[in-house]
Write a structure and sequence with these properties.
By secondary structure, the protein is mainly alpha-helical. Helices cover 71% and strands 0% of the residues. The chain is elongated and about 75 Å long.
Length: 114
């Protein structure tokens, strides 16, 4: 019985220079490099959102007459991060949720304050 061997070498860390130029490719390399720190990023995400992003709806609703939808969006993003982290999602999912929640909150702040 013969075994077929392939000469292809699959290395996860090799990226061509054309791929490295885009911001998305750099972001993907950063995320893949943080795979062993998944629990740390989950905890950083929860602490950051709990301290800085969860008070945002209270300020926007009370001082700037924002709709209650701001609270719904904030809680949805917060619990999505909790479920993704505790449910065993990958590092890319955790970091994308964390980054998108920051961007969405900054967007909500700029919309209702300015």
């Amino acid at each position: 019985m013969t075994t077929i061997t392939a000469n292809n070498q699959w290395v996860a860390g090799t990226v061509t220079q054309a791929q490295q130029k885009t911001l998305l490719a750099k972001w993907n390399l950063l995320m893949e490099g943080q795979a062993d720190r998944k629990t740390l990023w989950f905890l950083v995400s929860l602490v950051f959102q709990g301290v800085f992003l969860l008070p945002v709806p209270a300020a926007l609703i009370y001082y700037f007459d924002a709709p209650v939808l701001v609270l719904v969006v904030t809680l949805t993003l917060f619990f999505a991060n909790i479920i993704a982290g505790m449910g065993g999602a990958g590092i890319k999912t955790l970091l994308w949720l964390f980054a998108s929640s920051i961007i969405i909150h900054l967007l909500m702040i700029t919309i209702f304050i300015l």
